[in-house]
Amino acid sequence: MADVSPAKSFPESNITTTPEEVDVVLGKTLNDERKLQLIAKWKEFLCLWETRSPAYKVDKKTKDKVMEELIENFSLERDNLRSLIHGLRSGLNRELKREAEGKPVKWKFFHALNYMKEEIWLYQLS
Question: Domain locations in the chain?
Answer without folding.
Answer: 1-29, 31-125
